Amino acid sequence: MALDASEIEAGRTADRAADQIAALRPVKIVLDTTGHVGAALRLAREGLGLAEDDIAQFTRVRAAYIAAIEDFDFEALPARPFVVGYVRAYAQALGLESEAVVARFHREAPKVDAKLRPPGGVSHDAFRSIRWLLIVGAVVAAAVVVWNVARRAELRAAAPAMSPLRAIARAVPAAGPSQIGAPLPTPPEATTPPVYQTPGLASPPVEGAGAEEARTAGARFVAAGQVYGAPASGGGVILQARRSTSLIVRGPGGGVRFARVLAPGESWRAGDPAGLTVEADDPRAVDVYVGGLAKGVMPQAQVPLNNLIQP
């Protein structure tokens, strides 16, 4: 590589002042004229101590293309317009007159390609895959159509031959007034079903006394189940359930003294009835006994206990 030491960095032309490796060139570079321009560019690069990857980084041109330009290997290069751009960028990276280097390239490089080639990295595999997908889709659609046609033909062949409809002779109504026969019996599904009664809600008779006796005023109390509340000697008011019902006893302040769902025959005995109030969801299911004798059922759902004692 020939170096012209007479021209220093300050004497560079304007198009070489902004390149990226200006600090590596203290003198002006002169290309060798003995070989082709690619070999001359290689000598200039090696004289600056730069590798192909350095030029590729500065020019954004692939290192393989830099080597192909230096070897004049046009089989490894894309179309000529792209190569011209690469040579121009290579010359600018070395601080050379880019147009002069391009003109030398045009003189020395043969024109071997008549049509443009892609710069590289372009693959048509995607378009080939799409074509294959379209072909496969068309084949599948044709197969489905053929199968449907064949299936319909099989169904038509297997269908039984339809016999012509025969006219059905209708009976001519007899002349004269119509006769109405006896009414038909009511179908079973139209009869009224028996009334449903929830099990356990019936009013069984109290053990030891008949049902009528339990409703008669003056009948004596007979325990037919658990007796809650005060002991037998503690009071004279007893409430006995004819059938299952809830019973709530509240004190003077409204506090609950007793609350329970009494089964048929179960009872509650009061101690001191003063200030107590009795509540029942079914007052007609509660018999009242005072002094061991029946006085009837509760008159209402909520009643003071003293009112039940009064005659």
Fold blueprint:
Elements: E1 2-8, E2 27-30, H1 37-47, H2 52-59, H3 63-71, H4 80-93, H5 98-108, H6 125-158, H7 211-215, E3 227-229, E4 237-241, E5 245-250, E6 256-262, E7 267-270, E8 277-280, E9 286-290, E10 293-297, E11 302-304, H8 305-309
Parallel strand pairs: 3-7
Antiparallel strand pairs: 1-2, 4-7, 4-9, 5-6, 5-8, 8-11, 9-10
Helix pairs in contact: 1-3, 2-3, 4-5
Care to describe what's here?
The chain is an alpha+beta fold and 311 residues long. Among the domains are: 2-108, Orthogonal Bundle (434 Repressor (Amino-terminal Domain)); 211-309, no CATH class. Helix content is 31%, strand content 17%. The chain contains 8 helices and 11 strands. It has helices spanning 37-47, 52-59, 63-71, 80-93, 98-108, 125-158, 211-215, 305-309; strands at 2-8, 27-30, 227-229, 237-241, 245-250, 256-262, 267-270, 277-280, 286-290, 293-297, 302-304. The strands form 3 sheets. The protein has a 5-stranded mixed beta sheet with strand order 3-7-4-9-10. Strands 6-5-8-11 form a 4-stranded antiparallel beta sheet. A two-stranded antiparallel sheet has the order 1-2. Helix 2 crosses helix 3 (63-71) and helix 4 crosses helix 5. The longest helix has 34 residues, at 125-158. The N and C termini lie far apart (143 Å). Mean pLDDT is 78; it is low at 1-18 and 203-214.
